[in-house]
Fold this protein.
Amino acid sequence: MKIAVCGTQPYDRESLSIINADFGHELVFFEERLTLQSAPLFAGYAGLCCFVNDILDEAVLQILAAQGTRLIALRCAGFNNVDVLAAERYGIRLVRVPAYSPHSVAEHTLALILTLNRKTHRAYNRVRDGNFTLQGLLGFELRGRTVGIIGTGRIGQAVAEILHGFGCQLLGYDMLQNEACQALGLNYVELDELYQRSDIVTIHCPLNEQTHHLINALTLTKMKHGAMLINTSRGAVIDTCAVIAALKTGQLGYLGLDVYEQEGDLFFQDLSSRVIQDDTFERLLTFPNVLITGHQGFFTTEALRNIAHTTLANISHFEKTGECQNEVTRALLR
Ligand code: NAI
């Protein structure tokens, strides 16, 4: 099948091209992200391969449908950037990679927790500068600390497994109870109790209408004073302005982000020679107790290989049968 790959990075081209040797699709790589402005570029492609910050709203889907697109193959798990109901209306089928390596994101979550706690990002610079003082680098033992996991699906479970090894007490909040997490000693509690008891709160639920700004000015007041908040799910689960206010008072002690509400204008690009216009993001960067990575939780060799394989297999299945495996439908919106 002839597929336009939107928003291609060098590593996408490499991993998709290697695995495509087994599938034989015609892949055409575009650096441009899919937006309302760039949509006409993708005319004539029955299939598009998209990523987290491609814009797949009603207006874009309408253009794509008129241009002949029949399949969108998301090379990611989340689909919050897609108007699923509009895609159905325009007859465009959607497939995704529901699980490619939950351990990649879970291990990155731990990297954020450990770095913020033991301040290795600051120690690295200090030692390189010949400054061997320890003032300001004081950490705490994870053993015995209480960690609240919001969303105990694949990634939440992998995080629970690692934290269990650290000797943490585990609390969870999810509509579905995961027996593997319970077997590790994780106790399901209501959100308010999770906020009140946790030293660290880590978010692993999808972004949807229920979870948009789940962490806001009110919920931040319910957390322990000086708690750590980690978000590797989707940026808009957190109200960034409320979090900045809580960091300024010290109510929030540490913040680790791999995702950001307005990341579409920033992440996956080299903006090092430009003046960044997003003042909220720039304010976040000024805090010594904030650590931000640019949506790299998924970024391991194992995950890239699995993403490429499942994406190309999804496309082959549609091409051969007209049916979809790993389809995103309205049923997943509930
Ligand atoms: P999953 O579908 O296995 O687990 C999600 C869990 O969240 C489910 O158990 C579900 O019941 C729960 N959930 C849904 N609504 C909730 C709510 N309102 N409150 C609490 N829990 C709720 O998904 P998986 O694979 O664990 O991924 C989780 C999220 O991680 C994805 O939706 C995606 O946004 C994000 N992600 C981030 C990546 C990164 O590179 N930073 C890479 C991959 C995923």
